[in-house]
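[09:14] KT: can someone run the structure on this one? pasting the chain below
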Amino acid sequence: MKVELKNTTKKLCVIGDPVLHSKSPVIQNAVIGALGLDYIYLCQPVPKGEAGRWLSCAAYAGYAGFNATMPHKEQLVPLMDELDPIARKCGAVNTICIKDGKYYGFNTDGGGFLRALGDLGVSAGGKRVVLLGAGGAAKAVAAALCEAGARVTVANRTVEKGEALCQMAPGSMTTAGFDIGTLCKLAEECDILVNCTSLGMEGTGSQFADLSFLDALPSRAAVCDAIYAPAETALLRRAREKGHPAMNGMGMLLHQAILALEHFTGEKLDVERAKAAALTALAEEG
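[09:31] RB: done, structure tokens below
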């Protein structure tokens, strides 16, 4: 569906540096059109270090809000008037609503992951999670998992970075190494394994050197990958072949976008209709 522009149409956008590669306008405008919302979603390059200047410009130009990608997610945090618990915990925002001259910061990445996990038929409460990686995506996922009542072990190649991440929720998180022996031991008592590293990502040329840790997983343990290109990484293929519930990062991508739009509009949206519209638009985009 096409977005209909009227004098009442509210503006939204995604900012980043770089940002012209972003799929957010494709996803959001497809959802906006399908649900008949009076918004339009644009793409706005904002150089590193200029997020504060952009806030003033966005408010003056009448934007209802915007999404932020790298390198602005952490830089925007101290500029917000209010933060949601996940954004405060992980120290990053990706969704900013502008209302009555105030800036409200949210992080929908973690919530998007939990919604996608629900689509897989898996709940996080009380589960033992092994989280691979300690970067930005891992922070948001870990924060949401801890809020949902999971116990998270962060396995990262740089142990110090993993330890720093665990300070976010020391009562619910522990850290471990990334060597194959450690991963095999962690997998034995794992309910959900989540890859938030770039290993297996299209265009990086990097892969897991050894996936034998998957052999140690309990039979019904879920395996999740934050990567969505390719649609099935070597990790997910091995997990699927072994019969584990498995999902890639597309569900997280779509759900975080829909959650952001719910914050912008203040409305509960038809999630299934929104996802269908977004997937159709992405397929047409190629």
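[09:33] KT: thanks! The chain has a mean pLDDT of 95.
[09:34] RB: yep, looked fine to me
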